[in-house]
Sequence to fold (193 residues):
Amino acid sequence: MRIITGEYRGRRLESPIGYDVRPTSDKVKEAIFNIIMNDIWDATCIDLFAGTGNLGLEALSRGAKKCYFGDNSRESIKLIKNNVKMCRAEDKSVIIAGDYAKTLSRISEKANVIFLDPPYKDGLYENCLELIDSHDLLCEDGIIVAEHGVRDYVPEEVGNLEIIKERKYGKIMVTIYAAKKDAVMQEDESDEQ
Fold:
């Protein structure tokens, strides 16, 4: 597992031992960043269920200004800290130990890109999307990148969020969510009044 391109290009990330953490493969990671390349520069990101910090560090390497890394596992928090240090990205990183609800409740700024990669088959996607929506954590033009198994259920829409793009890579699906356009227009109109 390595950083593909950008400032930290070629750096090998410390990987987990065993199967508790499932890092995003380089192939899927490259595909994700090809899809979202125009959303990363100067972005604030959240890497939820960060595992090793793989996606957030790739975003920082490609020009994101800040990334919040959240994970519930002590081993994962240790891996994230080691990988952030190895990339010398401490000044751009905020590491939060705790489950997804605790992590999201501790973030007070809106994100441009949120990486959502919970354990497959745990049914956490809808809960995460509901919390992101209710905490109003996504910028007006922000996106949520959800990685999941092709057979895993992900909702078409949750609150003000809806699917705008889906791509399949073998047994992996990448689903992109954004704020519904009519919800953004309603917010803009209420701001003008």
Remarks:
- Strands lie at 44-48, 66-71, 93-97, 111-116, 138-149, 157-158, 161-169, 172-179.
- The longest helix spans residues 74-86.
